[in-house]
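README: folding subset

This subset contains proteins for which both the sequence and a predicted structure token string are available. Records are stored as plain text. Below is the entry for UbiA prenyltransferase (274 residues), shown exactly as it appears on disk.
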Amino acid sequence: MGLARTAAALVRASHAPPTVAVTAFAGAFAWGVGASAGRAGQVALAVLAGQLSVGWSNDWIDAARDRAVGRSDKPVAAGALTVRTVRTAALVAAGACVALSFALGVPAGAVHVVAVASAWSYNAWLKATPWSWAPYAFSFGLLPSVATLALAAPHVAPVTTTAAAALLGVGAHLANVLPDLEDDAATGVLGLPHRIGRRATTLAAVTLLLGATALVVLGTPGGATGAGLVALGLAAGLAASAAWVAAWRPGRRYPFLAAIGVAAVTVAVLVGAG
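--- output ---
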């Protein structure tokens, strides 16, 4: 039972919803741009290892701050995991990420390792600075190229796709921070959202998420399709509901889940467009 409890706590500490979502999106995108099912699976495994390392490093580095504000949703702060356990898990996952990434080839591997290192820089330092958004823009912007560089004919992802991924990353960052603005500020974490306030953060998150979807839909070769416009409408509905919840239920995690939903819609358009 002790091992099972530890495993369950590690899953929670991995920030499972975004970890699963980013992994699935990366694999789906790789398949959509022409990778075989096996190659797309390899991309997904490399991304999964990287996301696990990022999630676990977050709970390791933030352990003292999480305890200070009573974050019962964090297994380390709640006493379900030791700092040593989650630190070890993060380092093992980081090593696996390097090996799995370079199994995709040197260009794809190098780009992915740099993207994951950028995400670690957020956890270790940049989250408490006005540049908190930068690792999200950089890391998510690189992610499509991990898939395209892993193809039989490697190439960098199109500029439109890269820009849309970067916008999704920053929008998700802003939406994710909204419920924790006060707790973060109490422990000295003052990233960009904390400095511009809840209202501006909400508006920026909605604008960026919708902008990402619009960029993909309207940038489809041959122009926007009917299905693309429906996807854009769905993204708009999700973004609007996220803004409403952020305004009237500020402690809820829904805005971040809605951001994941917008990302799913955007990836679906990309996959559909090939």
